C-alpha cells in the first residue's frame, strides 16, 4: 500500500460489525467478560477499540509494529522517558521543544535521571557528551523553532553501536514526509495535536516502535501510568489523518512561497526553513525527508518590531501550537520556549526578535500581502 492509500485504508478502516465506513466511537469504559479472563477488551485504559484503530493506523504509517496513543504529546514523551530510571543519563537535541526541556530539567531530574542538551547536528559534539550510564539520545528534526536538521541515520547507527536507544520527535515532519524508524531509530513519537489532528481541536500524543521488547515495555507503561487518549479524541485523530496528504502538500507549497517572500524582503535578515536551498541542513533534510513542511521562523530584529508586526496582521492568529488549517504566529522566546532560561535561549539563537509561523491553508497571496503590510510598519 502506498503512503496516500495507507492514510485512508490503514489501521482498521471500517466497522467490522456494521460495515460503517467511519470507525465507531466506543465510549464504554469496561467490557463484559464471557467468563473470567475470556474477553476481547477488558477495561478502556488497557484497550479501547477506537484507540486501537488509531494505534494500528499510526504504526502502519510509521512502518513500525506497535503504536500507542496518549492524552498529549507530553504524555507520550513522559511515558517514553519512564523507560529510564535513577542513575541513567540521556542526551537531547539542544533546541528541543520547550516543554520537553522543562520535563527533563524539572521533572526527570527529580527522578535521578540526568541529561545533556547537545548539538546533535555534530556527531563529534555528541560523542563528547557520552557517559558510561548514557541510555538514549532524543532527537527533534527539524527542530522547534530553528528548523535545525540532524542526520537520523548516522546518529541511530552511532547510538546502536554504543547500545543506546534513538528516540525521534517527528512532530514537524509527520509520517507523511519522514519515517525515522526506516532510518534506524528505535522510537518515533508525535505531538498529534499538530499536523496529524490538523484542525486545532484535539490534544494527543503518539508513539511507534519496531521491537517487540520495546512494544511490551511501552504498552505496560501506557496502562500502568494511564495517560491514554480517550475514544472521542482517537476518532477525531483518525479523521484528521485521512486528509494528511492533501494538507501537507498544500501547506508545504504555501510555506515555500511565504519563505521565499520573506527571504527576499530587505528588512528580514534571516529565514529558517528547510525548503530554502540556503538553509543549513537543506541537503541532509532532503536526503532523509520527502518534504519541507509548513513551519518557518524568521528574525525581525527586535522585540519592539515583533509587537508592531503582531498588531498589524489579519490572517495570522497569535497562538501556541502549529500544524493546523489556519496560519498561526508565535514568538518562541515568550511562548513555546519561555521555560528555557534567557541566557540559554540567547546561546541557541532563540532571540526576542524571532517569529515562528505555522502556515495554513489560506490563499498564500493573502498571507504574503498580510506579511508585506505588517513588515512595512
Ligand atoms: C515538537 C513538539 N513536541 C512535543 C510537543 C508537546 O505536545 P503536546 O502539546 O501535544 O503535549 C510539542 C508542542 O508544541 C512540540 O512542538
Tally of DSSP helical segments: 14
Looking at the structure, what is the overall shape? Answer: globular
Provide the structure class. alpha/beta
H-E string: HHEHEHEHEHEHEEHHHEHEHEEHEH
Low-confidence stretches: none
**Strand numbers in spatial order across the main sheet:** 1-7-6-5-4-2-3
CATH superfamily of the largest domain: Type I PLP-dependent aspartate aminotransferase-like (Major domain)
Taken together, the total number of domains comes to: 2
Say how many strands there are.
12
Which labels suit this protein?
15% strand; seven-stranded mixed beta sheet; Aspartate Aminotransferase, domain 1; binds pyridoxal-5'-phosphate; Aspartate Aminotransferase, domain 2; alpha/beta; single chain; 38% helix
Report on this model:
With 377 residues, the protein is of the alpha/beta class. The protein has 2 domains: 3-242, Type I PLP-dependent aspartate aminotransferase-like (Major domain) (Aspartate Aminotransferase, domain 2, 3-Layer(aba) Sandwich); 245-376, Alpha-Beta Complex (Aspartate Aminotransferase, domain 1). It has helices at residues 3-9, 49-61, 73-81, 98-107, 123-129, 152-162, 174-177, 212-225, 231-242, 244-264, 282-288, 303-312, 342-348, 364-376; strands at residues 66-70, 89-93, 114-118, 134-140, 165-169, 187-191, 205-209, 270-272, 295-299, 317-318, 328-330, 354-358. A 7-stranded mixed β-sheet has the order 1-7-6-5-4-2-3, with helices on both faces. Strands 8-9-12-11-10 form a 5-stranded mixed β-sheet. Helix 2 (49-61) packs parallel to helix 9 (231-242), helix 10 runs parallel beside helix 14 (364-376) and helix 12 (303-312) packs across helix 14 (364-376). The longest helix has 21 residues, at 244-264. The mean pLDDT is 96. Pyridoxal-5'-phosphate is lined by residues 72-74, 97, 99, 140, 144, 169, 171, 191, 193, 203, 205. Its cofactor is pyridoxal 5'-phosphate. GO terms for molecular function: cystathionine gamma-lyase activity; cystathionine gamma-synthase activity; pyridoxal phosphate binding.
